Here is the input.
Amino acid sequence: MSIAIGSDHAGYPLKKFVIDFFEKNKIDYCDLGAFSEEQVDYPDFAHKVAQAVSEGKHESGIVICGTGIGVSIVANKHKNIRAALCCSVFMAEMARKHNNANILALGARTTEENDAINIVKTFLNTDFEGGRHAIRVNKISAFSEK
Ligand code: RB5
Here is the structure.
């Protein structure tokens, strides 16, 4: 499994923390920036991650900004992307089980680092339940293809 990860300047410290977790646990990832806390625009990095996942270069993605709101709005503009802003482990579990989310959005200014790691672990280790949820997710795709 390969994960694309990106953030703006506000999300950079949490991105570093998540990457440290990936390194320690030998989880394959690709860091698409930003690479410092110098001010940047979150759409640039959310677009990069969403595009990479949409094109199938990575199975899933993580986007981080101050609140997670901006990056999730941007990522959801892309075809085949279901980005979920998760503030709790329960939200991450539901985002996978019910929504088949393929991008996790996190808020670095709203989520404590250790909570974020538990959210990431849950997001990466929970499968889509399919069934009635697949019917609903297909309706999202059908609408976005109009
Ligand atoms: C940057 O200050 C902040 O606006 C950005 O990180 C994000 O929270 C936007 O949604």
Notes: DSSP finds six helices and five strands in the chain. Residues 43 and 74 are 6 Å apart (CA to CA).
